[in-house]
Structures are given as structure tokens and as C-alpha cells.
Fold this protein.
Amino acid sequence: MNRIALIAAGLVLALMAAASTMFVVDQRQIAVVYSLGEFHDVIQDPGLKFKLPPPFQNVEFLDKRIQTLDSPESRAIFTAEKKSLVIDWLVKWRITDPRQYIRNSGTDQRNLENRLSPVVQAAFNEEITRRTVGGVLATEREQIMQEVKNRLANDAKSFGIEILDVRIKRVDFVASITDSVYRRMESERKRVANELRSTGQAEGEKIRADADRQREVILAEAYRDAQKLKGEGDGQANAIYAQSFGKDPQFAQFYRSLEAYRASFRNKGDVMVVDQSSDFFKAMRSTGSK
């Protein structure tokens, strides 16, 4: 039994030793082989690979896909006009020379980013300081990114990488200038709003004045037409009265007396003291005698 156990243990150790000599290289990776802690070889072809067991040889992997480096923090850059701008940028890169990459930065990607970031920032500083605010914001933005990419091309070779793209993500004024710009914008908007209100009030007064004028004209024209119609009606009525009264003068006199009585006693409390022998009561006396 002891012999069988020893054989089994030996087989396990042999399998473990064999497994430690094999490793798989993914198509997205680059394998770096170290021999006793010293750089030995770089393997870029994917597949199953072999090496000596640890501690004689060890393997570390690099990512050969496209990587993104973002600006670590927003830093103010002065333009040709001495205006302070804050630039946020990003850089797309990938490893092209693994040996140079390892010699320069090792296998930790953070080492490369810490060394590449100041180089990119310096390139942006040089390009921004030669241009105006308008150029940075609009007209020369593409040119700035291309010039920075060209500046980084030679430095990238020493890092063992290739710069694929450079982009400006955001351009803004520093906080103090931004607040000043916002205050000016607010003042301008208030000025425009006040102008619109003043214009609206003037237009409102004009419309109201025109409406009042039209109302007065309409009322005057209506009163004129009413008086005209009333005059025409009175004229026709008088003509009819004259024609009728001409046929019977006595009835006309009686009718006029009744109209005078009605005009004099409109209310129940009206009182008139008049001599009963006056002409005013002639119609009544005649009626009473009958």
C-alpha cells in the first residue's frame, strides 16, 4: 500500500510539474517569459506554449488590445490671448514593441500611464498656447488634436507603443471665468427680457388706445345714425299727425290736450293748482258737460 501511495504521489507531482511547464496565450494577450527574474522572451502567437517550471521560468501577460488613457485631472492652460482654459483629453494607444514596452515600463500598465500622461499634457500645452480661444473651441480643434498626435508619435516609440488617436473631450473656462461668463449671460438675458417687456407694454398701450378710438368712433356713428333715424321717424309721425289733424281739427285739439294732461300727471303724487276756468281744463269741462 505504501508503494502504491508513493507511486500515486509521484504521478501527482509529475502532473503538477508538467502543468507548470504549460501555459495558454490568448489572442488578446502577449506572454512575457522571465527566467530567474530576468526578461527572457516575448510570445505573441496565441496557443499552447511551454516553459521551464517555476522558479526557473515565470510568465506574465500584457494586454495587446487598444487602451484608453484619460487626462488625470483638469488643468488650466493659457491661450495666446492669456485666457485660461481647462482641457480634458483622451489618448487611444496599443503595444507594438513588447520588448521596448517592458524595458521602459515593465509589465504594469499603470507605470506607462503615469509616464505617458505628462508627455500628452505637455503636447497639449504647447499647442494651446499658440492659439486663441475661438480656435481652441471651434475652428482649430481638429488641427490641435492632429498636431498633438504627431508630437506624440516619436515619444510613443520609446515607450514601445503606437498612438492611434487623440481627442479633446471638453474645453471650458476656469471656474472664476465661467462664473463671470454666466453673470454676463444672465445680465444680457435680463436686458433682452426688459426690452421685450417694454416693447410689449408699448404695443399694449397702442392697441388699447386704438381700441378706445374705434369704440368712440363706433358710438358716435351709432348715435348719429340713431338721431338720424329718430328725426326721420319724428318727421314721418308729424306728417301723419298733420294729415290726420287736418281732417278733424277739433279731435286734434282734444288729442293735444290729453297729451298735455299725461305729461303733467306722470306720477300719482303729482299736484297742480290751476284755475278751473283756464284753457288747460277746457277739454275736461267739455267732456264733463256732456
Remarks:
- DSSP finds eight helices and nine strands in the chain.
- Strands lie at 22-25, 29-35, 38-43, 47-50, 57-63, 67-70, 75-78, 84-95, 161-173.
- The CA atoms of residues 260 and 280 lie 9 Å apart.
